[in-house]
Amino acid sequence: MIVLEGSIKEQFDTQTHILIKGDCSIVNPNIRHLDIYNEKCELLYIGISTDFFSEIIRNDVSFDNFRNLKHEKLLVYDLYRNYVFRQSSIAKEYILFQRTMHDSNLSSIVKCMIDETRSKKPAYYMQVNCLFIRFFHELHKELCYRSTFQSLVSTRQEKLFYEIEQLLSKYEGQISRTELSNQLGYSDHYINKIVQSQTGQSFVKFSRTFILQKAARLLIQTNMTIDDISFECGLSNTTYFHRIFKEYFNQTPAEYRTGMISS
């Protein structure tokens, strides 16, 4: 999240920070946080997939004095690695980058990122990848930014929810509460309670998101009929599948497929 204008109060569990114009926070997905902003505040939220982040790190290379290729080391890359490679610890981490009095090129880099993403010109994907590298390096300029790396402790309930989420992802939502109960050693009622407390949704509704994400992927990547996709996702009632798909994506499966393929 980048503050473009005004100021914002960000709350991570019990910790609260004030960010002003030019400040930035980078948060891993394990942390739920609350943003409290005034009417004059302008913010830019950017979501980065783990695959895209991995490409950024892989492409951020330079040569040392002996002309050997080396990968750059940045604090934000540590945040990513902790999340991806130490997921068993359920790391809850974030970094605050707060402006000093020195000028920064961050706003111009962000503008280029937005323009390139909107344009979708040839090679725009690679351009945006390179701009993210510049973006992260700009944040790590000690003269321009003061960085703070924070790590929070996960509760027992959060750890259990993480296990539930991982199993739902593994089975693409096609696992019952009873089956989860048997695998995790908790009652199905308690599993539903944990999901409710962490997401505000029932277990059924939360697990449905994984099923619909699978359906969306099949619509884009295969030539399967919509009825076959519905069946593949464990939904024999195609009318019900159409209804919940439109509720989630605000499009019918056919509209979603046409729109994604044409773009």
In words, what does this structure look like?
The chain has 263 residues and is α+β, with helices and mostly antiparallel strands. It has eleven helices and ten strands. The strands form four sheets. The protein has a three-stranded antiparallel β-sheet with strand order 3-2-5, with no helix packed on it. Strands 4-9-10 form a three-stranded antiparallel β-sheet, covered by helices on one side. It has a two-stranded antiparallel ribbon with strand order 1-6. Helix 1 packs across helix 4 (124-139), helix 5 (156-170) crosses helix 7 and helix 6 (177-184) packs across helix 7 (188-199). The protein is globular, with a radius of gyration of 21 Å.
Overview features:
single chain; 263 residues; alpha+beta; three-stranded antiparallel beta sheet; 11 helices
* Mean pLDDT across all amino acids: 90
Q: What's the total helix number?
A: 11
Largest sheet descriptor: 3 strands, antiparallel
User: How many beta-strand runs?
Assistant: 10
Strand-helix topology:
Elements: E1 2-5, E2 7-12, E3 15-20, E4 24-27, E5 33-37, E6 42-44, H1 50-59, E7 61-63, E8 69-71, H2 75-85, E9 92-99, H3 106-119, H4 124-139, E10 145-152, H5 156-170, H6 177-184, H7 188-199, H8 203-221, H9 226-232, H10 238-249, H11 253-262
Antiparallel strand pairs: 1-6, 2-3, 2-5, 4-9, 7-8, 9-10
Helix pairs in contact: 1-4, 3-4, 5-7, 6-7
Brief synopsis:
The chain is α+β, with helices and mostly antiparallel strands.
